Amino acid sequence: MENGKRSSFTGKLGFVLAAAGSAVGLGNIWRFPYLAAEYGGGMFLLTYIVLAVTFGFALMVAEIAIGRKTGLSAIGAFGALSKKHSFIGYLAAIVPIIILPYYSVIGGWVLKYLAMFISGNGIATADGEGAFFTEFTGLIGEPILWFGIFIGVTMLIVLFGVEKGIENASKVMMPILVVLTIIIAIYSMVIDIAEDGGAGIAYYFVPDFSKFSPMTVVAALGQLFYSMSLAMGIMITYGSYMKKDVNIENSVHQIEIFDTGIAFLAGLMIIPAVVSAGTESVGKGPGLMFIALPKVFESMPAGEFIGAIFFILVLFAALTSAISLAETIISIICDKLHLKRLYAIIVVFIGCILLGLPSTLGFGILSDVKPLNMDFLTFFDFLSNSVIMPIVALLTCLFITFVIKTKTVEDEVESSGKFSGKMLFRVIIKYVAPIFLVIILISSVINGLIDAGYVTGGVAEFFKI
Ligand code: PHE
């Protein structure tokens, strides 16, 4: 879609809800809690919040403003502002292509758990210390089947153009998800207080500064990009649909509060439930939510029923995010390869299945193949969130500072109201973010090398958590 023909969101609420639909997903409910558990609980939470109100704010404002100013999605937007720099848009476009396949693998896990709870077997998923999860993900056919269903449903929604219907449904589902998450979180805390004197709550809330390392920041920043759908061109696309009279700064604040709020609650629901055995056993990686929650539902009154409702709601959150990932890839393929939409959808569907296979098999027959000492899913996740996204974010900051100047963004924001965070925005984009992002990139690459065994000794000590 080029300029004039572009449809737009009706008013501010429409924009905020659509952007929040993309932002709130598995990133908040599945990814945030396991990272927080792994990277020191309270220390991670604090780091994340500080980054969200500084980096997250500045970058989201910048992306939305660039999108609205040009009326184009990422590749076109960078190109329209400066021909030489459209490569930043291309780089951003790689990110959803890496994320969607493994996102769908986790979407498949959600479907499996939903099926278990709906059929009255949900409590069985609490068996052993994560034994059910390990056994299920270690299989070959069944996880592929669920993963295929998840990506298939996503593609059907996109094919029949019923995204609006899903988004409307999720406007009802999301508030229910928030309420249910609060209830489960309170329950988790009560159990934690009764059984462990609140050790889990303390782990989540009290920052332990000895747990801080450069990797805390790397992980928190990667999570920030992922959770807010930043540094991958998506917010540029959404900005291009935004009406000229909607206040960008206020909208960003609302998305931020909503997105961070849900992640925070998800942590509260999951982390106290896993700290009980002592904080040593906290890091359970990508399986954490699927191991911790069934235990909570097992001890909860009507747990089977509540679990079923919970997984339905999570499924909706995951679908709206998967749709926004799929739409981004499809529109790029349509524009650049001049393919018909139907063919583009078929290409994305098949490509996704192929790219997702290593991620799902990485927990089973491919579990001995460990790129950078990670399972495939974690590897793809690391590649997009800790390597490519920081690079895109860095290039975006440099592009704004040296090519279009911060004023271009500021003017766009001010065209629809006061820009109270202007100084903050400017300082972050011009100075803080670039320096920080370079450090982050170096740390994240070094850490990858440490994991792979290439770096040891003092340097490794410093960078490791
Ligand atoms: N932000 C989404 C989440 O938190 C994931 C996502 C990433 C969606 C990138 C779209 C684009 O789950």
Describe this structure in words.
This protein is mainly alpha-helical. The protein is 77% helix and 0% strand. It contains 18 helices and no strands. It has helices spanning 11-23, 26-38, 42-70, 74-81, 86-118, 131-138, 141-159, 163-196, 199-205, 214-227, 234-240, 248-275, 288-299, 303-337, 341-361, 376-414, 422-451, 457-463. Helix 3 (42-70) packs antiparallel against helix 12 and helix 10 (214-227) packs across helix 16. The chain is globular, with a radius of gyration of 21 Å. The N and C termini lie far apart (46 Å). Residues 1-5 have low confidence and may be disordered. Bound molecules: phenylalanine. The site of phenylalanine has 16 residues, from helix 1, helix 2, helix 5, helix 10 and helix 14. Residues 22-23, 25-28, 96, 99, 226-227, 229, 232, 234, 321, 324-325 line the site of phenylalanine.
Sheet-strand content, in percent, reads: under 5%
Q: How many helical elements?
A: 18
Unreliable stretches covering 5 or more consecutive residues? 1-5
The helix-strand sequence is HHHHHHHHHHHHHHHHHH
Give the helix proportion (percent range).
over 70%
Q: Quickly give the structural class.
A: mainly alpha
User: Which shape, going by the Cα principal axes?
Assistant: globular
Distance between the termini: 46 Å
Count of DSSP strands: 0
Radius of gyration: 21 Å
